[in-house]
Design brief:
single chain; mainly beta; Immunoglobulin-like; OB fold (Dihydrolipoamide Acetyltransferase, E2P); 6 domains; 6-stranded mixed beta sheet; 5-stranded mixed beta sheet; 5 helices; 5% helix; flat
């Protein structure tokens, strides 16, 4: 148990004993006096009052946890105020230290709710535990991020490293981490409460329960191995019976142990039992692909004491990291790595899709291990592969998936009820209270509303450029982001704009719900009889029949639509319900139906068609190009009556 917890318990006991006496203000600081320095709130929730008297202006100077409310949070010189500390019910113990700044002095009040029990868990369990709950974990220190506060990572082999943000010294004080003498490789046991900073889980201001010094101390070059490869050396000072090296099989194709030199330590009066040193040498192969890293394991033992240290050997690759615009402006046969979201899946067999970021959209033609990747439209991916040009289309071909983050479609209510974390969600709703130059607004659907904070105009973009999307209050938009919160209020974080989805008001609008099928596309627009930016459906390719389905409302008796076939190639459309063809329609070729979108079409009444049928219930109507005709057609202005 933390020393300050013990002190807090003692303080609580003294307060109970003194409870029958008239409350008197303490005088530990001349400029500010408080009636209590320890408060206990019951688990079911409640409030406690502290009387604060100060000869100078004072304010709450520490950042309060979301669960604790204080009112008022400041006071004027010469005042005596009743300050209320309150908290809602909680199923576990939690504690906060509140700092009150008064002139040059700081007063401290400890607030505890419930019983401060500590649960011993794995690192993985701690990082996915309950916010505010105190956990005890044990693991080897893998890296030290800050040597003043004691920010570090520990690993217990559970699959997730625990991040420690702040380590208290043996007296419970902050900013004195070096006094503990903790080094990489040491096995430590710590305990502290779980908190989140943004989407990062961390145990905060932990107390060190025990330290088992490592028999190994590693000194490795900070710079990665160059892409040409070569010999990479690691120095390991050890006090065990030698150094043992394990290179996992997954890295054996490019890194291997090539040798080891030993240097005996020289005893001195100051260090009578010095560590010996092993110089471990690895042979690293040339790298023609992406940046890569291998985690090799070193160990040393002395009796029952065994120390294990993992060392990451990183190597530069031959890949250029850039955005979509960088790929489009680049050179063929060069390998690029680029991130974005999947705006459209064009082929589910080979893994052809469109990748979009803030700077543009790129064709991905072929994805290695596509079926295993499980990628779907809307997901966020990073891929790398060679740039090629096919006809006039720039592509990355046969890419490798470097990273993949699934995106879940959700209503606002489902988003608000979800857990905080790195999971991406796709939301669709109406914009209000827009601050365009910051990308901040409320997004509302029929289930609720949520605040979207610093939304970028596209994946990887800057929120300050959000105005380039031309979004305005009242627009219906789709965004992708993670669930976060600020002072207890849910908000969308790490968000980026996907599309404006306002209903079409043009006479050429498609007013029925539809679902794309094989070799069908809805990402194109057309200028129709001079009216620009109309969404159209294109089905079929030069060699494949295309199809999509319409959802026709019950009670409809007629379907009207405009349709044109590819330039110089008349076509035939087929309409079917549950495999039965109910209508066929020959359509004329159109000179504007050629090349890539945006198309420029000139149509007449002869390009408008009607299908008469009694749809007694809501019906899924399949539309396809007939296989014995031209396979490409464009449809628009689809309506049911």
């Amino acid at each position: 148990m933390k020393l300050r917890y013990l002190l807090a318990l003692l303080a609580a006991s003294l307060l109970v004993l003194a409870g029958c006496d008239k409350e008197e203000l303490t005088s530990s600081l001349k400029s500010i006096q408080v009636s209590k320095t320890y408060l206990s709130i019951i688990p079911n929730g409640g409030k406690e009052t502290v009387k604060i008297s100060s000869s100078v202006d004072w304010t709450i100077s520490s950042t309060l946890p979301d669960w604790l409310k204080v009112s008022p949070a400041s006071g004027k010189a010469g005042s005596e105020l009743d300050v209320v500390f309150s908290a809602d019910s909680c199923a576990y113990g939690r504690q906060a230290e509140v700092q009150i700044k008064a002139g040059p002095h700081t007063q401290f009040i400890t607030v505890r709710q419930g019983e401060m029990t500590v649960e011993t868990v794995t690192c993985a369990q701690a990082m996915t535990g309950t916010v505010g709950k105190t956990y005890r974990v044990k693991g080897a220190v893998t890296s030290i991020i800050n040597t003043t506060y004691g920010n570090l990572f520990i690993d217990d082999g559970s699959g997730v490293e625990a991040y420690i943000y702040g380590t208290l010294d043996k007296d419970g004080k902050e900013k004195n981490f070096s006094s503990l003498g903790i080094e990489i490789g040491d096995v430590i046991t710590v305990e502290g409460p779980l908190q989140y900073y943004g989407t990062t889980a961390e145990l905060v201001n932990v107390t060190v329960v025990s330290i088992q010094k490592s028999l190994l101390k590693i000194s490795a070059p900070a710079a990665p191995v160059e892409k040409e490869g070569g010999i990479y050396s690691i120095k390991a000072a050890y006090k065990g019976n030698g150094v043992f090296v394990d290179v996992p099989a997954e890295y054996a194709d490019w890194i291997a142990l090539s040798g080891m030199d030993y240097v005996a330590g020289v005893p001195t009066k100051l260090v009578p039992e010095p560590a010996d040193t092993a110089v471990v040498k690895f042979k690293v192969a040339a790298n023609n692909g992406a940046d890569r890293a291998a985690v090799v394991n070193l160990s040393s033992a002395s009796g029952k004491n065994v120390s294990n240290v993992s060392v990451t050997v990183s190597q530069k690759g031959s890949i250029i990291d850039t955005d979509v615009a960088g790929v489009l402006a680049g050179a063929d046969n060069q390998t690029y790595r680029v991130s974005g979201y999947v705006s459209k899946v064009n082929n589910t067999t080979y893994g052809n899709f469109m990748l979009k970021d803030y700077s543009g959209e790129l064709t991905i033609y072929g994805t290695n291990d596509w079926a295993a990747a499980g990628i779907k439209e809307g997901d966020v991916v990073t891929v790398y592969g060679p740039r090629v040009t096919y006809n006039t289309t720039i592509e990355l071909k046969n890419v490798t998936v470097f990273s993949h983050r699934s995106v879940t479609e959700a209503t606002v209510a489902e988003f608000n009820a979800a857990a905080e974390g790195a999971q991406y969600y796709k939301l669709k709703g109406t914009v209000s209270d827009l601050v365009s130059d910051k990308g901040r607004f409320n997004i509302t659907d029929n289930t609720g509303s949520v605040y979207a904070y610093n939304v970028a105009p596209g994946f990887g973009g800057k929120n300050t450029d959000f105005a380039t999307t031309n979004v305005k209050d009242g627009d219906i938009v789709t965004i992708i982001g993670t669930r976060s919160s600020y002072k207890g209020t849910v908000q969308v974080a790490n968000g980026f704009f996907v599309s404006i989805d306002n209903p079409q008001t043009s006479p050429w609008a498609i007013n029925l719900a539809y679902t794309l099928g094989a070799d069908s596309f809805d990402d194109g627009t057309a200028t129709i009889n001079g009216d620009a930016n109309n969404k159209v459906l294109k089905i079929g390719t030069s060699s494949k029949v295309g199809e999509f389905t319409l959802t026709v409302p019950a009670g409809s008796t007629k379907l009207s639509y405009y349709a044109v076939a590819w330039k110089d190639k008349p076509a035939t459309l087929e309409f079917s319900i549950n495999g039965t063809v109910i209508n066929t329609q020959a359509i004329a070729a159109n000179a504007g139906a050629t090349g890539s979108y945006p198309y420029t079409l000139t149509v007449a009444n002869t390009d408008k068609y009607e299908l008469s049928y009694s749809f007694t219930s809501e019906t899924t109507l399949k539309v396809t190009t007939a296989s014995d005709s031209n396979k490409r057609a464009i449809l628009f202005a689809i309506k049911a009556e």
